[in-house]
Amino acid sequence: MLPRLPDEALFPVGDMLVEVGACLGIGLAAAATAVRYAPGRQAAMAAVVVQLALVLATILLPPEVRLWPPTCGFGHWDEAHRFWLFALPVPYLWLIVSGRDLR
């Protein structure tokens, strides 16, 4: 059985774009940081490991901000989207700092 939105509900496109932007920023920032400290493939793998660890860490978040859809039995979309909006600038600031020239 596929989960469905109620008939009167609209798909939260804007909220989902914020989440995508945060996830993309985390991946880019992790890769930029990894390239600073490890050469070649090790840097790419480090970025993947960082993003995977952050996704798995969401399981430990309090129930009010858990980032899983309610169809899985827990989570609250409104709080999760507010969390993503709050978190959105963090990886991009991290990306700017990690991309600075250290000379």
Our count of helices gives 4
The sequence of SSEs as H and E is: HHHH
Whole-number average pLDDT? 76
Q: What fraction strand?
A: under 5%
Sheet having the most strands: none
Shape: elongated
| Spans of at least 5 consecutive residues with low confidence | none
Taking all Cα atoms into account, the compactness measure Rg is 16 Å
The span between the termini is 57 Å
- How many strands? 0
Structural class: mainly alpha
Please state the oligomeric state of the protein chains shown. Answer: single chain
Describe this structure in words.
The chain has helices spanning 13-37, 40-57, 77-87, 89-98. With 103 residues, the chain is mainly α. The longest helix has 25 residues, at 13-37.
Please tag this protein with its features:
0% strand, mainly alpha, 103 residues
Write the layout of secondary structure elements.
Elements: H1 13-37, H2 40-57, H3 77-87, H4 89-98
Summarize the structure.
This protein has about 100 residues and is an all-alpha fold. It has four helices and no strands.
